[in-house]
Amino acid sequence: MPPAWGDMAVVGRVARTHGLRGDVLVDAETDFPDERFAPGRVVFAERGRDVVPLRVARMRWHVGRPRVGFDGVDSVAAAAALAGCELRVPASELTPLPAGVHYRHDLVGCAVVTVDDRAVGRVVRVEGAAGASRLVVQGDAGREVLIPLVAELCVVVDPGAGRIVVAPPEGLLELNG
Q1: Which CATH number fits the domain that encloses residue 48?
Q2: How many CB atoms neighbour CB 174 within 10 A?
């Protein structure tokens, strides 16, 4: 039985089909795509209400993205059915990160407050590539606040405590809210 969908971490998203053999292009959301999408590895996708395992049969790079073929997905139609699907793995399979580095899913749900303890909101997602990521924070009255995920602004990042403390420059919180 596969793990519960909510207990897994996103490692990519199927962008579209590629070629005639059932391959797909994946927008990787992992720092370890060569490892995560290596032949023989298993990722999971949600299909309807079912969580289904997908075993990687082959992977090669195509214009900076993994081009992946899965066992049993051997036609364009079968691959097209995966378009848009998130690809996840059990959190227990994630590669340990160095101190001070966090997986995106660990930041989602964290409360964001300023250094003077004013509530900003909760992280609903993290966008952008490594080194250029930003927190998307759901603020008051449903407005989104975008905060660059850099040490100069995010002075305390403590997913274990569910808290991120920010030192925003004047006007940042009002600029994009």
Answers
A1: 2.40.30.60
A2: 9
Residue 101 DSSP one-character state = -
Q: Is residue 99 part of a domain?
A: no
Question: Can you give the CATH number for the domain in which 108 is found?
Answer: 2.30.30.240
Helical H runs in the chain?
33-36, 76-80, 104-107, 172-175
pLDDT tens, position by position, 71-111: 999 999 999 999 999 999 998 888 787 787 888 888 888 99
Side chain identity at residue 146, one-letter code: L
Of 67, 93, 119, the position where a domain reaches its end is: 93
Question: Which residue in the block uniquely carries the two structure tokens 């101190």?
Answer: 99
Spatial separation of the C-alpha atoms in residues 22 and 73, rounded to whole Å: 5
- pLDDT per residue over 15-25, tens digit each? 999 988 999 99
Please tell me the distance from the alpha carbon of residue 119 to that of residue 52, in angstroms, as a whole number: 39
pTM: 0.69
Three-state SS for 107? Answer: helix
Same domain, 132 and 65: no
Can you tell me whether residue 133 is helix, strand or coil? coil
